[in-house]
Predict the 3D structure of the following.
Amino acid sequence: MRAERTQPGHGGRVIVAEDEKSLAAMVATYLSRAGFEVGQVHTGVQAVQTVQAEEPDVLVLDLGLPGLDGLEVCRRVRAISDCYVLILTARGSEDDRLTGLAAGADDYITKPFSVRELVARVHAVLRRPRTGLPQPEAVRIRGELTIDLAGHEARIGATPVPLTRTEFDLLTVLSAAPGRVLSRRQLIDAVWDTSWVGDERIVDVHIGHLRRKLGEEPDGPGFIETVRGVGYRMVDR
């Protein structure tokens, strides 16, 4: 199915998946005024189908959708798309937020929320590929790991590593200066945005995903090293 559309803009394509139709319409209106082309869906199944059919840049995802809840939608979307996923949740506990990030979300906003802040967060995630990421060369090789900056993909040997945009951006920042320790805040400033406000452990969740996809054991040697109390660094190979 195609999502119900607001007038197209020039800032990118956003799908708003929210079962409360009046709230979805309000969010869509603000995003449209900000220059985005916006579609609205109101069930979990519609959200997955629309992402697959329309390949949006961003999915704004309510966790309390009927049919499939938002966490399951996020997991299924992650299997078919590298679009940014921004979760809207009324579940404000730390565990709930981290669970959403663990399902593959890139960012979250807790309800009740400011629509202007949501629009700013959408702008922020879409700035990531264009700002903050040092990319002086087309390809980086770190041991068996090849990072193709131009093709936006990573490989271990000849085997592709399926990374989300956020995971790839983290890998890009860390690999730019192997051996240098970067704090959570430095990684947030480079990958999320200097204006990002929230739990800095969002970095830990995405680093955990990244390390697993690179085939690393939680406490074993690998491409990325945890420097306790400081941050993370790419092992200099």
Q: What stands out?
A: The first strand starts at residue 4 and ends at 5. The CA atoms of residues 87 and 108 lie 4 Å apart. The first helix runs from residue 21 to 33.
